[in-house]
Amino acid sequence: IPCNGIIDCLLPELDKILSKLDGQTTDITVSEDNIILNSGEDVFTFQNLKDTFPTVETNKADFICSINDFATELKTQSEFRSKDELRLKFCGSFLEFTNSGLIITSTDCHKLKTTKLICTPRIEVNFILPAKSCKLIEQLKINSCDIYKQDKNIIIRTLSNGYLLEFVCLELDETYPDY
Asked: Is 128 exposed, middle or buried (0-12, 13-18, 19+ CB in 10 A)?
């Protein structure tokens, strides 16, 4: 978050923040790199992440397809995803794009759930979508989206409240078992 974004968020709430501090002298220093809030012995530093946050050039990605009811179907599979991070290949959902559509599979080695969504992918590809990305899609209720793939990056684009939301997640480098 750039510092000016932090300032925009903090200024309306500044009175509430200052009232929760111990009442000693408060000093706010704003620079290009960070914002420092001093109050007695308490020091809060908000870093500017503009230069350190990784970016991915997404305009060179291969379009896979557009999907409807994506979050709804991922949510029905959430209890089937493994919570055991020692077996990473099960800590996500296996997305398999075939000529007949999208097959989403999740398992924790005891239970397995497979769902088929109707779509027409441009390329046949499969990958494991990490569990944290699945949870984010479920929480944001991204039902209608476009999915792209670029090297090991999975790019999901959707329109939300009139804004283009695009997030990139890293494909798990594991082989999903043949079910």
From this structure: buried
The whole-angstrom distance between residue 138's C-alpha and the CA centroid of its chain comes to 10
Distance CA 106, CA 84 (A): 13
Please tell me whether residue 150 adopts helix, strand or coil conformation: strand
> Is the CB of residue 49 less than 8 Å from the CB of residue 4?
no
**pLDDT, tens digit (0-9, with 9 covering 90-100), for 25-49:** 567 777 767 777 777 777 777 666 5
DSSP state of 50: T
What residue has token string 């501090």?
Answer: 21
Q: From the centroid of its chain, how far is CA 96?
A: 20
**Model confidence, pTM:** 0.60
Q: How far apart are CA 72 and CA 68, in angstroms?
A: 9
pLDDT tens digits, 53-106: 455 566 677 888 888 888 888 888 888 787 766 666 677 888 888 888 888 888
Q: 10 Å Cβ neighbour count for 154?
A: 24
CA atoms within 13 A of residue 115's CA, in its CB half-sphere: 19
